[in-house]
Amino acid sequence: MTIRNPILRGFNPDPSIVRVGEDYYIATSTFEWFPGVQIHHSRDLATWRLVARPLSRADQLDMRGNPDSCGVWAPDLSYANGRFHLIYTDVKRYGRTTVTGATGVSLRDFHNYWVSSERIDGDWSPRVHLNSSGFDPALFHDDDGRSWLLNMLWDHRPGHKRFAGIVAQEMDLTTGALLGERRVIFDGTPLGFTEGPHLYKRDGWYHLLVAEGGTERNHAVVMARSRNLFGPYEVHPDGPVLTARGRPDLPLQRAGHGDLVDTPAGETWLAYLCGRPLPGSDRCVLGRETAIQPMTWGDDGWLRPALPQAEGGDAGADVSPEVGHDDFAGAALPAAFQWLRTPCPERLFSLTARAGHLRLYGRETIGSHFEQALVARRQQAFRYTAETLVDVAPANFQQAAGLVCYYNSSKFHFLHLTADDAGRRQLQVLSVAPVDEGHGTLSAAVAVQDGPIALRVDVDEEELRFAFRAEGDEEWRWLPETFDASILSDEATLPGLPNFTGTFVGMACQDMSGSGMPADFRHFRYTERTARQP
Hints:
The chain is mainly beta. It folds into 2 domains: 16-305, Glycosyl hydrolase domain, family 43 (Tachylectin-2, Chain A); 323-528, Jelly Rolls (Sandwich), CATH 2.60.120. 0% of the residues lie in helices and 45% in strands. Strands 23, 25, 26, 28, 34, 35, 36, 37 and 39 form a 9-stranded antiparallel beta sheet that branches. Strands 27, 29, 30, 31, 32, 33 and 38 form a 7-stranded antiparallel beta sheet that branches. Strand 6 and strand 7 (83-93) form a beta hairpin. The chain is elongated. The chain starts with 15 loop residues before the first strand and ends in a 6-residue tail after the last strand.
């Protein structure tokens, strides 16, 4: 099904959507990026504004040590009893299958938590641990006043189906205590990989919406219904409600993992996960995004897309390119930026140590899963330019700071100022790609003078180039290499690793000597383009 509505650019995937009065809120995944969960607000389902990242404290989230693309998965946002309720998974271990194929053991750790708040932008409560039996938890508030926790059930045992169905268990909405025993309410369909459950009640029917087929090209939104919350559930007679499987020509791929919302006028909309491949490629450098689709209820009581299937469609081309100029003049990090894993940002950066600058303190390597000084924002278009001005004085090769295009610890291009063995400052690019298995490549060094240096990256779809200039110079000096931007994608990976985040661009500082070298960034400018550079 082609989507004629624009995707919600800048959103992460795994949307959960809720309406409170005339206000709509969407919560999306943030994976290893801190603060956790992004919540956007709208009044018209078209114009959205970031209003909260609720998981901002150590008593809500600590992802130090979490593998790439783990951390916060599939948050669920709901409203009941005068409060917003947020359920989320913190994935601590992804774990490759230790024996080839479905018969091997797959040990993974998924911890599901609950926080709540009276205001969407308020002070959210400390987390309450719910269970660790699987991921994608969600709350369903029944019309009898009872609330139910749903999640997929993970089965690590050799010879068993990994995705072992959807379970439900009653939850006390005042304490978070789980009541009674969990019950499997849906085993899934032959598409497999049954996850992302959401439950709704309409005309006496319980409608269960799940994601199936995996989160790649076979992804699909599947629905089933029952007169009883615990089933048995009858699967939608049309098969998947929304999918792009078998249609590589569609501009939006991976359609799945959805959630429904009703407007005050009684219209129903589906927010769901999707991906936009680079033109002529299967690689999605923007990662997994969120789209929204009008739906309609048929006379038979089943939900279907409101738009007819058609070729083409609008994949967001009507949205004006974004321009972001951040000069770090305030005491808080601009809203577009995030950092990795730790709830202790004061060890990574400061906006007050030097007025008008973002100071990064060199910590662990750019590939660390624990404490790295990397502050970045999402890439939201296939073509963009980013610039920054950095003032740093590295003393040795273990110290480096600069501009980074970053997917995760195994996929990045890092234009950085460092020092050679004689302590002379130089500029290089460290590139790490999945095919390198972490070895990486280092471009030829370019000697640079002391003082602030402006750094620039231009990305044109799959091509990436770096440039630099001394402060006050008018002309950019372009490095001769053209780097592969497409490796910063979900699809460029080694087998068995999760890849969910999309690409970020930002500033980084590492100091493997342990002395915490500071690097001061005066500004960061991000400008999207609609055409290739000449």
